[in-house]
Amino acid sequence: MAKISINLATGSFQKEEIIVGIDLGTTNSLVAFINPEKNPQVINDSGKGILVPSIVHFNHQNEAVVGNEAKEFLTTDPANTIFSVKRLLGRSYKDVADHAAIFSYKIIDDDTDALVKIQAGDRFYTPIELSAEILKELKARAEHALKTPVNRAVITVPAYFNDSQRQATRDAGKLAGLDVMRIVNEPTAASLAYGIGLDPSEQKTIAVYDLGGGTFDVSILQIQNGIFEVLATNGNTYLGGDDFDRAILNYWIEKNNLDLTVVAEDNILMQTLRLQAEAAKKALSTQNLYNEQVGEIWCTLDKQTFEQLIAAKVEETITACKNALKDADLTTAEIDEVILVGGSTRTPFVKQAVENFFGKKPQDNINPDEVVALGAAIQADVLAGNRSDILLLDVTPLSLGIETMGGLMDVIIARNSKVPTKAGRQYTTSIDGQVNMKISVYQGERDLVKENRKLAEFDLKGIPAMPAGLPKVDINFLLNADGILTVQAIELRSGVKQEIEITPSYGLSDDTVEKMLLDSIEHAKSDVEQRMLIEARSEGEQLLYTAERFIEKHAEHLTEKEISETKVHIESLKTALSSQEKDTILKKADELNEFTRPFAERVMDAAISTAMKGKKIE
Ligand code: ADP
Ligand code: MG
């Protein structure tokens, strides 16, 4: 289903607005899109690099810088350099208090607010605001690299994120000026990047092992009919590649006979050694020995020693995998695929441990630190409607409604509504004793149904005869995720009911949708004028009908003069109605209404006293 965006200022439209995929990571964030060759591709804005460290630094003017530029301040200005903000998203101080020591910046626990704030300089920031800074940077990079505005995104979150963490991510996106089309689970995105789940007939159970910089999680997913169900998740939000770096650092301090507390006081030295440790770790993913010197300090490490240093941590991740399988009630043999995600799975020892545990070679041919963003881009492409092979309906491209008096379109489900969706409205009859009601369903943006596309028509039959305006007919529209519209009409007093099913997208090409939207813009002004005239006419006609019936039925309560004067008002309303002038119609209708109001009250009083006479009051 195509998504078309219209620039309201110019009335022009853009058929293929790019929706980007964003991996908002604890350590690194990145953005990807689907390139013109239809392949997912990560964005490297003018060689600035693909990964943007998820770090924000504030200077004295409270101006923010993000990424590698901010990373440099980790040593020189740690109090105003915020990292790992993802761990604080949607969290209360209580949630993070146990780990507060690892944050070099100030986390505020104000009793008034359930959620944490972070202090930098003289200002307080919510994790949402800080995440928004990172997203703004990604948005700017994407716009610069793609040379087009980027307003919409799919953002990924860990599968274990709760509602408030997901909402916080959404809010961060909004704050960064992004319309967040969907929040997608990171393991789901990773599967999509490997092409798993794209074929709706495919049925698979997979394990996604994600070891990043500071967090580890494993998710067991069941994929069926293109739907991803998370069967179980497990992990540790304080376990990751940073722990490997720390283990190496401690090892070097010991080997060089240094005192950890002394080194720890020297921020610059600490940071230099930590970066050196990370470099060693990365090098050992492809070589057997690392050998460097920092001043007097020897930074030497061989692969075997490194593996001993991290063995216990890696074992912890395997225990988490066991627990996840147990929760999902599955054995390793029942896992069809294992996917590796996160930069730390580049370490061969980690890869091997995962392979040993699951008893099969994990999928690792896509860059583990890019795979989530690439999958998010694929999801974005599906939402943009560019993949007709997958039915992942998101919004309805045209409004759906019914015809009301005078041939007007009454919209029940508006264009761009998220599906599945449900909406309804109440209607009534316009003629006394009306027993049938014709319900015509239309699709389109024009005010007059005759300019829209007719989808179906049916009669609600068997409404008990009642005065006009008394029956209550509920019309409900139900649009399911497969794009099937169920229209239900029910008269509430009698319970008579009628229902039909329609497929609104049937036979509707992208070009048709486009044309319909363009037409609606072009005719917007004249449509509004017509609608107002029709509404005035309907109102006038309805009043005419009631007034004529009234003087006929209740002549006994009216004088000759009153009747003749009412008739004069009726005639001038009739003339106005044939004039097609909205204001005249409304004016004449008003006059008739005002003139007859006292009669109506009199009739009502008479009716009440008649009713009272029949009753004995003692
Ligand atoms: P996150 O999902 O937490 O944002 P990433 O998936 O980007 O994190 O992983 C970052 C971690 O991956 C860091 O600890 C980094 O040192 C580690 N890493 C990156 N490249 C390698 C490599 N070649 N070998 C081992 N670890 C690596
Ligand atoms: Mg990650």
TrEMBL record:
Q: EC?
A: 3.6.4.-
Supply the gene name: hscA
Task: Extract the GO molecular function terms from the UniProt entry.
Answer: hydrolase activity
User: Which residues does UniProt call coiled coil?
Assistant: none
> What's the source species' lineage?
Bacteria, Pseudomonadati, Bacteroidota, Sphingobacteriia, Sphingobacteriales
| Top-rank EC class of the record's enzyme | hydrolase
Specify whether Transmembrane is a keyword of the entry: no
Which Gene3D superfamilies did the record assign?
1.20.1270.10, 3.30.420.40, Actin, Chain A, domain 4 (3.90.640.10), Substrate Binding Domain Of DNAk, Chain A, domain 1 (2.60.34.10)
Family, according to the entry, reads as follows: Belongs to the heat shock protein 70 family.
Spell out the protein name for this chain.
Answer: Fe-S protein assembly chaperone HscA
Q: Which UniProt keywords apply?
A: ATP-binding, Chaperone, Hydrolase, Nucleotide-binding
Q: Native species of this protein?
A: Pedobacter rhodius
The keyword ATP-binding appears for this protein: yes
Checking PANTHER family in the record gives:
HEAT SHOCK PROTEIN 70KDA (PTHR19375)
Q: What InterPro entries does its record include?
A: ATPase_NBD, Heat_shock_70_CS, HSP70_C_sf, HSP70_peptide-bd_sf, Hsp_70_fam, ISC_FeS_clus_asmbl_HscA
